[in-house]
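Dear Dr. H.,

I hope your travels went smoothly. While you were away I took the liberty of generating a structure for the chain from your last submission, since the lab meeting agenda had it listed for discussion. I wanted you to have the full record in hand beforehand rather than looking at slides cold. The sequence, exactly as received, is reproduced here:
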Amino acid sequence: MGDAFGEGYPRDGESPAHQVRVDSFTIDATTVTNKMFAAFVEETGYRTEAEVFGSSAVFHLISTAKADDVLGVAAGAPWWLNIRGAEWAHPTGPDSQWEDIPDHPVVHVSHTDALAYCDWAGRRLPTEAEWEYAARGGLEGMRYAWGNELTPNGEHRCNIWQGTFPQRNTTDDGYLGTAPIKSFPPNAYGLYEVAGNVWEWCSDWFLPKYYRNSPTDNPQGPSIGAGRVMRGGSYLCHDSYCNRYRVAARTSNTPESSSGNCGFRTVAL
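The corresponding predicted structure, in token form, is as follows:
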């Protein structure tokens, strides 16, 4: 695990690179989709935290909300709009519908929401170590899930930002926001979109210094932290702003947080 190239952000704690052993596990090939999450909601009546709070964060270029539904912008990140009525079923604003994009990853789900889905599905979230092991697809010490070149032979392998962030995305990879699952080639273990598209929640608490003394066998993360680990990057990542589509990259958010670029995949119990 970890950054073998010295390219990570110091505050993320991607170093030192270190050996880890994990027990065998079975992980989803894709993130949970809108259609999958809808089945959970239909059966249980579950309300996500974004629905309870009444709003969630939508990237400004994909917002479909009316001006009076924009409640404000994120401090230090004005490209994030706090949209009244934005939640998993209405991902870009209250007039948008999940049914229009059923095979896209579900977004506006908090860590708490992801755990609720897992309880219903008889699954769990991956540990951070499991996620990185699966995402690497057997390629040790590589920068990406497919090797060391971002666009081998000029081919886009992930949904990230092209252009000048946050105002102009050339969409050379075909997408401004989320892409449908299986839009890009899988890694050698058959996992799709482990780079870009949406961040993925892991089970671990996040501490930047954890790698310095983390266990070798089946690390479960620290017992406390400022937030929960997120992995994989999203459609907003760009080397000028958020070079976290590398397979070693890590970040975090508070468990109740939701946004239009974070989802999850699950692991068998």
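Two observations you may find useful: The mean pLDDT is 97. The two ends are 23 Å apart (CA to CA).

With kind regards,
E. W.
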